Amino acid sequence: MLHQEHCIIFPQRPAPSALPPAPFPSSVHPTTRPLSVNHPPPPITMFHPPMLVNCSHCRTPLQLPPGARSIRCALCQAVTHIADPRAAPPPPPSHPETPPPAPSPYNNLAPPPSAHGGKKAVICGISYKYSRHELKGCINDAKCMKYLLINKFKFPESSILMLTEEETDPYRLPTKQNMRMALYWLVQGCQPGDSLLFHYSGHGSRQRNFSGDEVDGYDETLCPLDFETQGMIVDDEINATIVRPLPHGVKLHAIIDACHSGTVLDLPFLCRMNRSGQYVWEDHSPRSGIWKGTNGGEVISFSGCDDDQTSADTAALSKITSTGAMTFCFIQAIERGQGTTYGSVLNSMRSAIRSVGSGDDLGGGVVTSLLTMLMTGGSAGGGLRQEPQLTACQPFDVYAKPFSL
């Protein structure tokens, strides 16, 4: 049934028999009678006056078409809804909605530690337990470094992300994906004045480089827990993740205790130091001209050995447990007050490693209170043939620049 406002009402026409006789004048023939006589009126349409509404934005009167529930103003383009004319109009759909950003891959560090006081650290120790690649001292190294950062350099514990096989959170196991996410987390949101640290103790390796951007023809790599199935993390990726994005005023230190680790951050300059402490800076910038430095920040890396050397996992240094030789010597230099400058730290580390197997006394017994926290381990000692290295994004005077984290 039609609503009344949409109906057209016609007057009822009488039946032919009921029509009264037409009064024709004698002079007019019936076939020429006037059309106005007894002609039915035009149909009558029920008409409603147009509905006027004020634009909800500019208040201009608008004529609403019948049945319409909204109308767009031709002046300001705002849409007025009749159901609630007092409501504010929605924004004009001039641009398509922007989809929400994809979730960040490192949000899975559930929950990531919150950084306080501008200090943030990622510590990774991998023992490769129950595999033919097992190392004895790497988790000890990680615990040792965490202790040092908290007690010596005042890193809040909540700003230190530990990746070891002892962690119960699956996102804190040192797998390739978790290590990648941790490195992204380390530099995420960093601000001028921040101090960041990446410590790694585990296997390192190297592979042939075919792009021509390595002086020695090899890319240095880190070996995550699952490297046999997922692959290694190459120095190019490490550089792109934590070095190149680093903004002005942010300082990053890397302490890498692994084989073939001399230039594992792919930093442009290497400090080549001889046994008497004399040094020169070697330019390791790629011949291709690719920039391997930062975006204004400062990056300095201590590594356990040169690119063509191996790094020891030994009990010969601490006398009580297995540790990475480089990690132990770095901590010892700091604890003994030999960490005033970068040059003094590097010289102290090299001297301690050279002394192994030579009969020199490292101080005897338990060197520091730090090392008493380590659990007893075991690994055969022996002479070490490794030289810790120092690389940086810019050359500097290693004996004048104070060391600080």
In short:
With 405 residues, this protein is an alpha+beta fold.
Radius of gyration: 41 Å
**Strand order within the widest beta sheet:** 8-7-9-13-16-19-14-15
Low-confidence stretches: 1-19, 22-36, 84-88, 94-106, 108-116, 309-322, 359-383
Mean pLDDT across all amino acids? 75
- Order of helical and strand elements: EEEEEEEHEHEEEHEHEEEEEEHHE
Largest sheet: 8 strands, mixed
Number of helices: 6
The SS-based structural class is alpha+beta
Shape label: elongated
Taking the alpha carbons of the first and last residues, their distance comes to: 85 Å
Annotation, overall tally of beta strands: 19
Amount of helix? 10-25%
Bin the strand percentage: 15-25%
List the helices and strands and how they pair.
Blueprint lengths: L7 E2 L34 E2 L5 E4 L6 E4 L5 E3 L6 E3 L37 E7 L12 H14 L8 E4 L12 H12 L7 E7 L2 E5 L9 E5 L4 H4 L2 E2 H9 L7 E7 L11 E5 L5 E5 L14 E6 L9 E2 L8 E2 H11 L6 H14 L33 E4 L13
Helix pairs in contact: 5-6
Describe this structure in words.
- With 405 residues, this protein is an alpha+beta fold.
- The chain has six helices and 19 strands.
- It has helices at 138-151, 176-187, 227-230, 235-243, 325-335, 342-355, and strands spanning 8-9, 44-45, 51-54, 61-64, 70-72, 79-81, 119-125, 160-163, 195-201, 204-208, 218-222, 233-234, 251-257, 269-273, 279-283, 298-303, 313-314, 323-324, 389-392.
- The strands form six sheets. An eight-stranded mixed beta sheet has the order 8-7-9-13-16-19-14-15, with helices on both faces. Strands 10-11-12 form a three-stranded antiparallel beta sheet. Strands 1-2 form a two-stranded antiparallel ribbon.
- α5 packs across α6.
- It is elongated, with a radius of gyration of 41 Å.
- Residues 1-19, 22-36, 84-88, 94-106, 108-116, 309-322 and 359-383 have low confidence and may be disordered.
